[in-house]
Structure prediction request, 657 residues.
Amino acid sequence: MSEQLSMDRILKDKMINSFGEPHLACALLLDTSQSMGVGNRAIDSLNEGIKRFKDSVTADPIARNRVDVALIAFNSQVDVISDFVPIDQMPTPDLEADGMTDMAQGIQTAIDLVKRRTNMYHSLGTPCHKPWIIMITDGLSTSTEDDMQKAADRIHEEEAKGSHGRLSFWALGIDDYDSDELFKLTKRVLELRDQDFSGIFDWFSESMACISQSQVGEHVDFGILPENARKAVKDRTIDEDWD
Amino acid sequence: MIKDNFSIQGKGHIERGIKCQDASMVECISSGHYLGIVADGVGSAPFADVGSTMAVNGLFKYCDEHITKDSSFDDIQDVLSEGYTEALEQIDQYIRERGAGEGDCDTTLSAVIYDGETVVFCHAGDGGILVKYTDGRIEAITTRQKGEDGVSVRPLRAGKDSWDSGVVHDAVSVMLVTDGMLDGVFQPVLVNLPPDREILATGNFKKDQVYITAAEFFMNPNAVYQNEKIKKIEVKNNEDKPEHVFMDTFLQGDLTEEDEADFKQCILAAYEKMMAKEELEMVMESIESHYYMVWAVANIKDDKSVVLLMNEKSDVQSQPVQYYKDPNWVWRQECYDALLYGRPMPEIPPDDPLFTEDKIEINTQDDKISEERLDQRENFEINGEELIQKEDSNNGIWRKVLPWLLKKRHGEGD
Prediction:
């Protein structure tokens, strides 16, 4: 009796890789305005956190093949540092803080990229999980009120599409972030104390790994947030409706 | 006439405890015509399995009662359309009686009436119908009916204006399949890659190429159904219908290396009378390099439905031997990665039978269409132009690389 053909064996021996595996697109939308560089602490910690995020997700053999990441920075302008690449090929830039905070334009660019990515998956018949945008910011947006409203409307529109939404938008506020502004964008607002990104990036990478190993559309329970991070309400456990 | 049908619960559905939502049937109806039907209950619909079963049974009954020996092809086309309407009304009535939601029984529905030469078909949804002609070509005669988002399916409920119907002649075999088999095996993405990332993002490119090895496995009577060398071929009787054990086992997808050997045997049997020994060896070498078909069937998570009708007495010509070679899967995989991640496209290999300059011209035409569609797509309304220009300047991809590659292929490049 022959052994059942293992996918690993087939993929390894036959050199056709995992194009049929479900992918998860994650866009990191990073505030690099001048305030992030005060004392260089936040921007330096953010740079370290991105490296840590890459290393953690890459260490998971399943997540490594399934998580695609884009990096977008915004200050007075929006800079697509990297379009979507496999997590192990994600660049780890040394971001520098400068300029204003054009958050609205950053959000619009991130949504454009994510939707374009999702369209590519669909066109290729590649199963995909609901994409994530993780925005990290420390301050007030300097975008116009009208532009911020348009950005918020677009997030809400994408999150309301279909039976489970077509986007999960997360906002991580640090220091004197404007919680009212972030809550206008999404219910998924996290806040970070002490500018140490290591724990929260571990949490993001664990969440990525959990989702990437789940069935498309399956509910996933996220872990407990690190000590220095919390949901922007009292409860530190992530609600089910955050998935 | 060889006829068979399978509706097999997908591995993904087994893991999640979801019953098979496909239904299928193939019978000789009272008029003497053969009727094949396949339906795929839409996964998000709570009573998808009910919808697909009702659609198949309702259409069968209507066709059996209304098609006569003297029916013309036009008459049959009308009856099929009326049968679709009748099946839809029965489903609507079921929904009304139970107070269920409008789309709770949503299903696709594809059907053919076949007399051994001519296929009359009707089609709703994202499955497909493939025909093998007397000259040996195998083509899909339907296109996937998707929603505007490119993901959702236009089901039977989309109505008569959405349904596709027609008549094709000179058919020696016809096969109906649901989307899992269509997208995974018969028209997989690797044989239908777009020429560049811009078109990939729009989804507006042709996906009409057929993976011939897979299609021949099912649609060539010598491959499986008349192949006496396959030991596992048995036909057992149960209460419902005779069951082809080999094909059923193969479609279950729990495949072993022994199945690879059986698959090889089937393809050899299919081709050995069609080509010279050297040609056969060349074709088999391309197939054995990856056994892509075996991998593809094993990898499908969705329910799998196949309906087969083969006129084994037909005279069938062969296409040129290149037609039967497997694509260069490694190159196509590299193209897939390049498209997805914006890497430079690999050079076109000399041994890929599906790559032709005609294909490029077709896609160039698609490109024009896609640019029109870009303006209509919500995701490109804001900064879309800027985003696309950036994409082009960063990557170039086939749009810029192809002319050079083609020159090189013809010995004109440096």
